[in-house]
Here is the input.
Amino acid sequence: MPDEKNSHILLGTRQRGDRTLINQAMEVHYLNTDLDIESVHDLYRIVEEFGEDVIVLHHGESRGYNHASFEIALGADFGADEVINYFCSLVEAFPKEVREIWDGCCSRILDMGFESGTTPHNLRSEIRASTVQRVARIGASIVITVYSLPVSMERSADGNISSDLE
Here is the structure.
């Protein structure tokens, strides 16, 4: 049985003044995988070559480098391994001149994003050896980013949810 101090994290609700603590379990889950690239050279040809297969999250100058950030445009619910393989397929299909721009990037990162939570006890997300080999062949790295949960979530009397981070 959970201790009284942490019981609001797991189940039910608890009143505090005119606010009700949201006491539901928050599931740890995979969000998506972004591809982030940086170069001293223009990245427009890479952005153009990806076309409608990706959503461009950012394309421009950042910290003195040309930067572009992408996520896949497919609407299906894919896991990290499938998304990483999809990005690899796109890069492997680049024409020679675009692949040279890719190879000239100073940073090529596949960033797997996860949101933290209270359940389940653990979450496994396998990246297969064959996928890691493909990532290495395209000269990219894999990063894992875990986004924390707010310390507490609350619902005000008007029904709006707020957190300690607001």
Notes: Helices lie at 7-10, 44-50, 80-92, 96-103, 129-137. Residues 1-23 have pLDDT under 50 and may be disordered. The chain has one domain: 29-147. Residues 29-147 form a domain with the Alpha-Beta Plaits fold (CATH 3.30.70).
